[in-house]
Amino acid sequence: MRAFxxxxxxxxxxxxxxxxxxxxAAIRAAKERENAGTRAALALSTISDNIRMAEENVxxxxxxxxxxxxxxxxxxxxxxxxxxxxIREAVAEATRRGILRPNSVDSxxxxxxxxxxxxxxPVIHYEQxxxxxxxxxxxxxxxxCENKNIQYSLPCELEGLGRAGRDLDGIRKCILHSVYQAxxxxxxxxxxxxxxxxxxxxxxxxxxxxxxxxVDDVNPDPDLAKLESYIMxxxxxxxxxxMGFGGDVTLLGCKxxxxxxxxxxxxxxxxxxxxxxxxQGVTIDPKTGQIRSWLYKDEPKDASKEKKTAPxxxxxxxxxxxxxxTPPISEEQIRQLRVGDVVILDGLIHTGRDALHKYLVDxxxxxxxxxxxxxxxxxxxxxNKEGKWEVKAAGPTTSIREEPYQGEIIRKFGIRAxxxxxxxxxxTLAALKExxxxxxxxxxxxxxxxxxxxxxxxxxxxxxxxxxxxMWHLRVKNFAAIVTMDAHGNSLHVDVEKSSLxxxxxxxxxxxx
Length: 513
Ligand SMILES: O=C(O)C[C@H](O)C(=O)O
Ligand code: SF4
Fold this sequence. Notes:
Blueprint: H1 4-17, H2 21-33, H3 39-57, E1 67-75, H4 80-96, E2 123-129, E3 134-141, H5 143-146, E4 150-153, E5 156-158, E6 162-164, H6 168-182, E7 190-196, H7 200-210, H8 222-235, E8 251-258, E9 267-273, E10 278-284, E11 291-294, E12 322-325, H9 331-335, E13 342-351, H10 354-362, E14 373-375, E15 380-383, E16 389-393, H11 403-413, E17 417-420, H12 426-435, E18 438-441, H13 447-451, E19 454-461, E20 471-485, H14 492-505
Parallel strand pairs: 1-2, 7-8, 12-13, 13-14, 14-17, 17-18
Antiparallel strand pairs: 1-3, 3-10, 4-9, 5-6, 7-9, 10-11, 13-20, 15-16, 18-20, 19-20
């Protein structure tokens, strides 16, 4: 089993940098469905570019490489203690190489272990089987989509849909609602795995297991197969679209499983996965530890590679105005911007996410932020041979987590633009209007695309918060994002949420009776 560790390292690298063909095919089909020139089409073409760049650069598709979760089947007698040790070593090595972002933090102190190892990380599950080979499946599911997982306990009342009872139609309503409540925040268009039954723990486990099914498979249970195709049809009428920008494609895959429950409990558990659906698997020779075959590498019939659509700048969007801005930005420049405009940034921007926002409420900033731009981003960074920091991946993180702090910080420091994804709430919208600032939505998961726009790392503060949470000072060029909340009280997110709720309500009447 000498080669086992190297095989796992190869599996991690493939999973983080190269999306499987079935996932690519789903994204390609979505791109074909969206009208050219819309915000959704722009987002999907950036996503396609990003997928290609990650493969070419052998770098993470998204900066959030998630919680590595291994599902392993072993022949009777295989040494699981040795395998777990090798897996941990491979995870640490992948982190050193910038294939994984250091993502394991102490839950109480927030301290990052730096190597993705710690209590509960990585997750490794074993199961024995009678075959004479080892099968290892890996999923790298990021935090933004994990936060959009949801569990329903039937019967329940659902906004837009009314009562969901303890039957197939109640299940139908829960699943539709799960897609609605995610909006664009889990980097839609997404994939869902659904677990019906079990208890709260096994229900979620079953939901996650569904994510290991191929996008193009057909459920062997005819009732569940019908439900899956119904959900695909209905969820794509909600109009949430890629990144919550509105559009015809909201859901790329739906896989449903069922297990028994006890009479008093009736759970429907939904695992939401972003478009950056990084799962891969291998079979391994138990004697040598070498890879025998890959599980998700066969191309669906119509497979053609992503074509390059544009260099690292936004493809043209119909009817959208485009502004080139360089910080420090004035209030006058900001007040000209409207929801739907494209902003191209050149110059210095600063990353800041959860730890920094909490800190800035009670402390001064280490750099002058007036007229400045804050980027909600936790990048993957590596030091090169000369000891200089380099960006390996740098897409936006979910902004709503900063909602409790953002308005106050905009006022206190005179910030003019916040870049993130998924949109923010009413408090931030009010602060944007009052102070003269905008929210710019970057394309979630497009970590290679944005890393390519970063010309230089000018410095870093708060490295003690860990690499993702530190404040990185980045010089960017051609950094494109869309105004989704402006300084006049308009929010695309409010509009899409409202219109998608109206559309959801159309699915109130029973379908499976
Ligand atoms: O942690 C991150 O970088 C992003 C996270 O996956 C998110 O979607 O918010
Ligand atoms: S940023 Fe988006 S694409 Fe990346 S892990 Fe989070 S939800 Fe997924």
